[in-house]
Predict the structure of Fucolectin tachylectin-4 pentraxin-1 domain-containing protein.
Amino acid sequence: MIKMSYLVLLNAALWGKTSQSSNYLQSGPELALDGLLTSWTHTNNETNPWWRVDLLKVYRVNRVTITNRPSNGLRINGAVIRYFFDYGATATFSCGAMEGRYMIVHIPGDKKILSLSEAGVYGVPPGNLAVDGAATQSSTFTGWFAEKAIDSNRGLQQNTACSSTLNQTNPWWRLDLRHIYRVSRVVVTNRKDCCTEQMNGAEIRIGNSLENNSNNNPICAVIPAIPAGESYSYSCGGMDGRYVNLIIPGDMKILTLCELEVYGEVNPLNVFVNILRLAVIDFCIAFQRFT
Ligand SMILES: [Ca+2]
C-alpha cells in the first residue's frame, strides 16, 4: 500500500532538554532554542566542546538544522552532528530515517569553542500511526485544537501542546487513521500542569463506523486514571478500525489530551481493497480510451 504522509513536522528540540560541555558567561545551551538569531550558545575554549538536546523519547528523524551565529561564525566550523541511541552514528543535515533520542553537536580537537544560534530536530516517534491521521473533537476550547494531540509533543513543558474540548456532555476526540489498521495498542498522555482527574473514565473506542461520531465503535479500554504528565499504554489486541475515539461519558466533562499514539499494522483487507480500487481505476481508463 502506498502510504502518504500528511504530517507537517515540528521542531521536536523545542520540547527537549538542552545541555552543553560548559557555559561561557550567560550563554547557556537553551539559547539555541529561543527562536532568536540575536542570541547564541557559547562554551569555554576547551577540548571537544559539545551541545546536546535530549528529545525525551526516541524519534525517527528526517532532518536536523543548525543555524550559525551572525558574528564569529567560524566557531561552528568542523562541528560534527552526532546521533545515538544505544549505538553511535554520525549524520549529515539530512538524516533520512535515523532513530535517536539525543542530538549532539560537537567539535573535536583542542582549544575549540562551540557556539550556535539555533538548532532544530524534525521527526516523529517511529511506528506511531497517529501522526499521519486527522484529528477532530466535539468542541474546542480556545486554541486547544484537536490536532495538538497528534503533534508528537507530549506537552511536558507547556500545555499549549494539548487539545481540549469545552465543558460539555459526553465530550469526544476522534482520530481518522485514513486507512483500516489492526491496532495493537494506544498510548495516551495526560496533562501535567493540572486537572489530571478530568481524564478519569475516558473510553478508547476503535472501529470503522462514523455512527454517533464513531462513539458507538467497540471499546478497547476504559481509562481509570493517568498520573500527571504520564503516558499509559492500552493493549487493544489487534482491533480493526480506521477511527480511534476517546469519549468521556457524562455531563459537565472536559476532554483534554496532550498526546495520543497508535501502534499496529495494516489490515490485509485494506491491502486487498486498495488493489481492487487501483484495478477499477485502470479498467475505467482503458475503457475510456477504447470508447
Ligand atoms: Ca501534543
